[in-house]
Amino acid sequence: MSSSPIIELIREKLDIVEVVREYVPALRRAGRNYKANCPFHNEKTPSFTVNPDKKIFFCFGCSTGGDIFKFVMDIEGLTFPEAARKLAAKAGVEYGDERAHAITPEDRERLELKKMLTAAAAFYHKALFSPDGEKARLYLGERRLSKATVERFELGWAPANGTALMEELKARGWSRDLAVKAGLVTEREGGRVGDTFRGRIMFPIRNQSGDTIAFGGRVLDPEGIPKYLNSPETPLFSKRRTLYGLHEALPQIRRTGRLLLLEGYMDVIGAHQHGVDWAVAPLGTNVTAEHSAVVSRYAKDTVVMFDDDRAGIQASVKAANVFMETGLYVRLASLTGGLDPDEFLNEYGREEFEKKLSEAADPLDFQLKLLFRDPKNPPTSQDKAKAIADLLDTVAKQSDEVLKSEWIKNLAAHFRVDQASVLKELRKAALALPREKARVQPDPAKGIPQLERDFLQTLLHYPALLDQAGALEPEDFSDQLARKIFLALKELPQELRGKAAPALAERFPEESALILGLAVADFNAEVSSAQGAASEIRKLRRKSLQRRARELKGLPTMSPQQLQEYSRLMSELKSSAQDL
Q1: Which of 107, 112, 317, 571 makes the best surface tag, with the fewest CB within 10 Å?
Q2: What is the pLDDT of residues 515-568, one digit of tens each?
Q3: Strands 33-36, 28-30: parallel, antiparallel or unpaired by DSSP?
């Protein structure tokens, strides 16, 4: 495992529970461990577990696990050196240029990608203020963005000639292959390559640590398509997990617990310029369960406000449904007059905008207000039935049963229909919902006999008992994987035994889910005593003797040496029976 005096000092000084809780506020004690819904995948039943004694985490749902450094790397998309530097600052430890640990090839590549993307952002920003960027500057001026805002979000311009950035990157020593992997250069027909973004206003997309990981580009040519273009998926960037403006908004979101989800780049930038600095946006109107997981880490009060048109309203409701399905409660708000949030702020200012936010309604009330607003055309019975059916799709996705019950009452009262009828229709709507298949992870320990599995778990929980296991050999385990883990445990240096689980998980990445799962799972505490461990060792040894005796007995004939061995085994088995 990655280790050095500095790394060990950071591990010693920081409490993994407190570090994880900064990202997963719902983390709660459950026996020896702490549990919460996993921040890395969508789930309704907590399977994410943190063990403070071992200083490790593990999710039994998605098999993600590791130590405090691995958690920060995964949650923020950092390399090991970046995570170490961040944790060193938190621990009050001087990290400096300490390089005693090994940097993996993957880490090295990610660092180079970040350097390249940072250089690309600077290139685009410089181009914005060149003669070629005049049209882009005029457009940003028309959108009433100040120079300070342009600088803060590092907006830029991608020259239209199609090779300017590629030539810049080549001159700075980066390869074409790396530029393609970063999404900055695209291979075209005939084997030619060129800049991915051409003739577009550029929006650097940053992770929560402030690193540029991707770009969005808006075309200025009215005939250009698509209007907005995002970077492709890369080792640094996943559209499904990224919220634009999160880095800039995090200080205020953490301070207040409020988060405002808007529709696009300009909405977020305009909101921040007017002091509404808790605004973020998905990269497109499709909100995902992964976005919901990100939001749940930071915000208790979330408002969704997409554009005030039919598509925006539908996208708002859809986003609310995604949030509800993952156990979050959000409110929906809309503007009047067909204005986008940045247009509304420029026209009416922050105070009026915040009034609109204060009027945000829960998803059901929001939709009810949009129905049958013309008093001259009252709804027919069929109109009511169709509206109720549509609204019940939202009710069915609500995971809070108390709130769901209140919504049913409100629906019945609003449409003046029998509550039992609404409830009956709700059951139909719930049955019609597509059922998401439960995420079933293969059990890596399924083939290991229970006795062997329990003993490995004991050693991972209490490595001090390894000294008692000296009489056992790897061959005393029937399962090959159990043999490998036991041998690795026996070979661990004394100073690493206290960190046996993360050390072995790093040594055997393919078996890390098994090792970490055993290390954090609840188990029979009686075995933790020296007497209990001795009993388990005797049982394992006896099973081993029985296996070997069966092998010999199954032979067509035994040699004199085998007969002698068989006689010895039977004698040992008879003697060991008295110890059980």
Answers
A1: 571
A2: 999 898 876 555 555 667 778 888 888 888 888 888 888 888 888 888 888 888
A3: antiparallel
Residue that the structure tokens 């394992």 belong to? 540
Tokens of 159: 């020259």
**Closest Cα to residue 421, out of 365, 381, 448?**
381
Q: Which residues contact 28 (CB under 8 A, 6 or more apart)?
A: 34, 35, 36
- Give the range among 397-401, 485-489, 561-565 with minimum mean pLDDT: 397-401
User: 186: burial class by Cβ within 10 Å (0-12, 13-18, 19+)?
Assistant: middle
CB-side neighbour CA atoms (13 Å) of 506: 16
3-state secondary structure of 49: strand
CA distance 23 to 88: 17
Q: What is the DSSP letter of 212?
A: E
Other Cβ atoms closer than 10 A to 306: 29
The DSSP code for 104 is P
**Domain extent listing, the chain:** 5-91, 105-237, 238-359, 361-441, 450-577
- What's the pLDDT tens digit per position in 364-373? 888 888 776 6
Neighbours of 536 (CB within 10 A): 22
Which CATH number is associated with domain 5-91? 3.90.580.10
411-414 long-range contacts (CB < 8 A, ≥24 apart) are 411/364, 414/368
Pairing of strands 258-261, 301-304: parallel
Query: Is the predicted pLDDT of residue 146 greater than 90, yes or no?
Result: yes
- Examine residue 363 and say whether the peptide bond preceding it is cis (omega within 30 degrees of 0): no
Query: Confidence band (pLDDT; 50, 70, 90) for 430?
Result: low
Nearest CA among 181, 205, 215 for reference residue 112:
181
Specify the CATH architecture of the domain 450-577.
Orthogonal Bundle (1.10)
**b/e sequence 309-345, b meaning 16+ C-beta within 10 Å:** eeebbebbbbbbbbbbbbebbbbbbbbeeeebbbbbb
Candidates 3.50.50.60, 3.30.1330.60, 3.90.980.10, 3.40.50.10490; correct CATH number of 105-237? 3.90.980.10
The C-alpha atoms of residue 118 and residue 122 are separated, in whole angstroms, by 6
The verdict on domain 238-359 having CATH code 3.40.50.620 is no
Q: Which amino acid is at 398?
A: Q
Strand partners, 214: 205
Asked if 36 and 45 count as a contact pair (C-beta separation under 8 A), the reply is no
CA dihedral 104, 107, 108, 114 (to 10 degrees): 180
Q: Residue 103 gets which letter from DSSP?
A: P
Share of the chain above pLDDT 90, in %: 40
Stated pTM of the model? 0.76
- C-alpha gyration radius of the chain: 30
* 302 pLDDT more than 60: yes
Closest residue by Cα to residue 477 from 556, 565, 536? 536
Long-range contacts of 488-492 (CB under 8 A, 24+ apart): 489/456, 489/459, 489/460, 489/463, 490/466, 492/463, 492/466
CA distances in angstroms from 43 to 2, 36, 324, 457, listed in the order given: 31, 10, 12, 26
